[in-house]
Amino acid sequence: MKWHHVAENWPAFFEAIIDRWPESDEETLEDIDGDQRAFVLHIAEVTGQSPEDARDEIKEWLAGELPSDVVMDPAHDDHSILLSAKFLPEGEDESDDDARYGDG
């Protein structure tokens, strides 16, 4: 994913950031407000790394999957639905109506 996805949807990434860097907290992330430079410095501080190493770690994190609740795009949604198939019980199809399975 690109940084602009993160910056434009900053609060939606708090959970993913705290999962990756548990030393972070929501209050600090709110103060950073999607500023990439401030985020790099924050990660460097909480991990004890140099800013260059923190930047590399963030770049690696950005290479991961974009959270489905951040992008409202049918192609992305379809891709996410197909990826979800591995978590479904036998006999259920990822495109089936959720109401048939008590989900909705």
Order of helices and strands: HHHHHH
Shape: elongated
What gap, in angstroms, lies between the N and C termini? 31 Å
- How many H/I helical runs? 6
Secondary structural class: mainly alpha
- List low-pLDDT spans: none
Bin the helical content: 40-55%
pLDDT averaged residue by residue: 83
Major pleated sheet: none
Estimated radius of gyration: 17 Å
Tell me how many strands there are.
0
- Beta-strand proportion: under 5%
Short summary:
With 104 residues, the protein is mainly alpha-helical. It is built from 6 helices and no strands.
Topology, element by element:
Elements: H1 3-8, H2 14-20, H3 26-32, H4 36-47, H5 51-62, H6 74-84
Task: Note the main attributes of this structure.
mainly alpha; 6 helices; 104 residues
Structure description:
- The chain has 104 residues and is mostly helical.
- Helix content is 53%, strand content 0%.
